[in-house]
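Structure record:
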Amino acid sequence: MDREQDTGPARHRDRGEWLPRFAGRVLVVCPRCGGRADVIPRPGLPPLAHSGELLVRPRRLACGGCGVNAGWQAARRDGALVAAQLGGTEDPFFRRPLWLQTRCAGHVLWACNEEHVEALAAYTGATLREGGTGRTRAMFPRLPRWMKESGHRAAVLAGLERLRVLSALSAPADRSDAAHERSDLPRPYRAVYQRNGPYEGDV
C-alpha cells in the first residue's frame, strides 16, 4: 500500500540552535572591490570543541575576485580569549557588511551563509512551531518580532529566496543595495573562552 501523503501543517522543532553554529563561514562585502569575500577560520587549526569556539578562532578574510587577504585574532583578557559578538548586519571579526542582506517588510533581512538561510526558511515556513530547549541564547526565540509574525511570512520567505540567489553570486555588481555599513552591533556580553595558550601561530 502506498504511503499516504502528509497533508498536515509544516512543523518546526526548535532544538536550541545557537547563532554561532552558522559562523563557520561568513559571507561579507570585500573591503577592496565590493564583491563577495569569505571570512573563515584560519586553516590548520585543531578540531572544533563546540560551536562557541568559532567566535574566538583566528580568522582569514579572503576575496576570490581581487585577492585581498586579511587576518584576525581574538583579544585576550586575563589570559582568556574575548569572543567576537555575532549578530546584526556586520560580521563581528572584520566589521564588514554581510553579503547576504535584503530589504524586507520595512526592515533588513540578513544571514551569515547559505546554511543560515536554510535554517531561517525552515522556521519561517512552518505553520506549527514547537518549543525549544529553554537555552537562553537559542537563535529562534531571539529573532525580531517582525520575522515571526504570520502576516510577514510570505515576505520573509521571498526575502530568504533572494538571499539564496545572492549566496551564489560574487561580483561587485551583484551586491545588494542593503549591504552597507550600519554599525548595528549587538549589545556586548563580554563572553570569554578559556584556552591553554594561544592558537599556534598567534602572537
About this structure: Residues 11-193 form one domain.
